[in-house]
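Q: Two folds, back to back.
A: First:
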Amino acid sequence: MENTENDQNDHEKETKNDTPAEANGSVQSMDTGQSDSVEEEEEDELSKEIMARHFRPSIIKTEAWEGYMFAGLEIRIKESTDLYGAMLWPSAMVLCHFLDTHREEHNLVDKNIIELGAGTGLVTIVTSLLGAKVTSTDLPEILGNLQYNVNRNTRGRCRHPPLVTELSWGKDLEKRFPRASCHFDYIMAADVVYAHPFLNELMETFEHLCQDNTVILWAMRFRLDPENSFVGRFQKLFHLEELYNLPGLKIKLYSATRRCPRSQHLDTT
């Protein structure tokens, strides 16, 4: 009988000793799951907040337009459905939302900015309304609609009238934008990476325009493998920091700077 009681006591001790470790493992597992769930909810809320900046007019009178609210102002964008580059994609809204909600961290007042693949002009317009000196670029066939949207939304509203100009990636870069005289504080790019045949030229353009102190802000929607491989190649030239990750929109927002100072790069070429 005594042996039975001792065995029972030993069993109870072992059970008590095992319980905290097992419970701790369960708690850690629950904490990890809860953390992931909270992070996903926050990302979903951020996606909803960004998309809520878009609205449509209740009555369309003379022309169709899409409305957006950034920099405390209503912005009206006219799209051109027959041109892929003259449509507004969510990546532009993600970039504009970041700029609008991080004004202290990225104070754009009087900063020199160039936008690549400006499309309908939303990013150009928002950065101009936030006080920047903006050079807005795209292909020749996009410029008419781009100029219209920029004029419509910035005239009399910004410190520096934006400059809209042609830029074909990789072509005449030194002639159009001499490194000695063109110094940009920021390069803005929204949804410029997709399955088009000019990814090498785009990389060349980033490299040419990016000075030692230039910050690239780049919003990208992931679609196919070429996008993933471009990011890998991009990281060989630039330090890359992820600012937003929005799985619901399949969009990431990056900040990037040169890995090697331009002087060092030139010495090795």
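A: Second:
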Amino acid sequence: MLEVHVPQVLHLQYGMYVWPCAVVLAQYLWFHRRSLPGKAILEIGAGVSLPGILAAKCGATVILSDNSELPHSLEICQQSCQMNNLPQVHVLGLTWGHVSPDLLALPPQDVILASDVFFEPEDFEDILTTVYFLMEKNPKVQLWSTYQVRSADWSLEALLYKWDMKCVHIPLESFDADQEDIAESALPGRHTIEMLIISFAKGSPDLPP
């Protein structure tokens, strides 16, 4: 058993509390925990950072990031690190779609975590711009992402094609996430959540064992 502590704050900003997708992505990480030690992992739009904190506790080298223009979100990332005694985890301000000095200085990553970042359709392109930049640093990097289906009109496929990316849908039952309660959390509930692994179209993603 592994304990993870995260702060939650009643706040208008999305990143101040745990969303259902974070629990599902954390479950995927836990299911594949033996593949995590030594991996370089960046969580984008981290907020309370449940998936990133879990990955760090499983032995990955983790960087947590959120919008550089939202200091409260970065503070909540820091609090999550402190609550879990993870001083080695760095917190970074990254604004999607902006090529900042911090983004340029990032070392190549093995995995990018994104829990419910595909929330506002107007952000989708900026998110993929940032992911594409990171994929150019390491063409084998994968984006492990969960998102909640909120509208049948939203689709990532056309944008992924534009950015020369592809995705593999991971069935929730393949990592014991096809239930209303996961790890004593009732958050996933009856929400429709998708688990995706996104990579460059030119390469075949090596899925975790």
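Q: And?
A: The chain has six helices and seven strands.
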